[in-house]
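Field notebook, page 95. I keep forgetting to write these up properly, so this time I am using the form the group agreed on. The chain and the ligand, heme C, are recorded exactly as supplied. Prediction of the bound pose follows.
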Amino acid sequence: MKNILALTAVIFMTACSGGVTRSVTSLPDISSTQAKTYVTRCGGCHAVPHPQRLSFQGWKNVLPVMEQRMRERSMTVLSHADKQAILAYLKTHSR
Ligand code: HEC
C-alpha cells in the first residue's frame, strides 16, 4: 500500500511540474547547437522553461522582457545570432 502511494506521488509530481523542466535532459533535441544556446542563455536566472510552455507568439513576447532582465542584471544581452538560434529552437518546439 505504501508503495502504491509513493508511486502515485511520483506521477503526480511529474504531471505538475508546471512546464519548467527539472532536468535539462528532458528538453527536445537537446544536443543541437540551438538547444545549447537556449539552455546557456535562458537557464541563468531560473530553470530553463520547456518550449511547450508557450506558443511561438508567447515566446516572442517573453524574449524582450528577458532581455530587459538581463540588462537590469548587467548581463551580456543576446547577440543577434543567439536570438536567432533561440527563436528557431522555440519555433520548432513550441506548442
Ligand atoms: C537576467 C535573468 C534572466 C535571464 C537570463 C532569463 N530570464 Fe526569464 N525570467 C527572469 C525573471 C526575473 C522572471 C520573472 C518574471 C519577470 O520578472 O518578468 C522570468 C520569467 C520567465 C518566464 C515566465 C514568464 C511568465 O510570465 O510566466 C519565462 C517563460 C522566461 N522567463 C523565459 C526566459 C527565456 C526564454 C530566457 C532566455 C532568452 C530567459 N527567460 C532568460 C529572469 C531571467
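OBSERVATIONS:
- DSSP finds four helices and no strands in the chain.
- Helices lie at 2-15, 33-42, 56-72, 80-93.
FOLLOW-UP: compare against the apo run.
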